[in-house]
Amino acid sequence: MADIISLLLPFFGLILIGYIAAKATKQPAEALGWLNSFIIYAALPALFFKLVSRTPIEELTRADFIVTDIAATYAVFVLLFAIGRFVRGNALDDCTIQSFAGAYGNIGYMGPGLALLALGEGAAVPVALIICFENALHFIVAPALMAAAGDDKRSPGRLAADIARKVALHPFILSTAAGFAVAALHLEQPLAFQRLVDYLAQAAAPCALFAMGVTLALRPLKRVPAEIGYIVPAKLILHPIVVFLALTAVSGFEPVWIQAAVLLASLPTATNVFVIGQQYGVWQERASATILITTVLSVASVSLWLIAIRSGLLPLQLFP
């Protein structure tokens, strides 16, 4: 337990420092712009490039891992969508944001730092694959469902072109693709370039966590959604369980790959869920509340998942 506390204290401590700094200085939300730009366009892409480019190409082509992880994540998404649509009778656009709130974890900002800290370098490849492919699919699913709901007024052709451009040109996707190319071609990277990438990658986790704390402080809890009663357990408990069951059922994966996937699935709701809601004017305050509540509760839930992983309580072969 002491190991878990010493591991999580600096991690969640950075989020708390960002939260306190934002409350104390009362800076406007716009003041966070350049830090977010640095994180999204420099630090995290450098980290993803580093993780992927220095990995043997055969480890990067595990389509079975990618498909299984995404299928598990979207099983949770579909379940929440069905509950919102057919049980609660919510509108299609509301159901979309609610489902993302329960299935889209904060894998970009929180995932790499926590997984590498807790599981070591062996978690680098699965983390990079999950972040790259899950984000790419989320970027496709969100506008497609919003278009179906009538909230996106673009023509089908324009919508498809915009989605393709957003996916293809996103810094996370571009950096991961560049890493794939370097790994596949066995390119030797100049020492000066490697050092630059290392410097940027080292800044990714602390800057991202600090920015996340600031973001939480700037989005106060105003409206708690009724759906929080099932979205929170779906995100913090059900999602990692479904990912674990799916990966162990398929089998053939290294233990650290399963552990990394479960850990990323246990993370709280991504701040991008609020961004999507804000973009379409749907479920904004409630998305913000969900992010804050799941983040606070994840201090306990992520700790329990880490205990299960590190103590061996999480069996890695349920289906012999």
TrEMBL record:
Keywords: Cell membrane, Membrane, Transmembrane, Transmembrane helix, Transport. The chain crosses the membrane at residues 32-53, 65-84, 123-146, 167-187, 199-218, 230-250, 256-277, 289-309. GO terms for biological process: transmembrane transport. It is a multi-pass membrane protein. InterPro entries: Mem_transp_PIN-like, Na+/solute_symporter_sf. One of its GO terms (cellular component) is plasma membrane. It is found in: Cell membrane. Pfam families: Mem_trans. Belongs to the auxin efflux carrier (TC 2.A.69) family. This is AEC family transporter. The lineage of its organism: Bacteria, Pseudomonadati, Pseudomonadota, Alphaproteobacteria, Hyphomicrobiales.
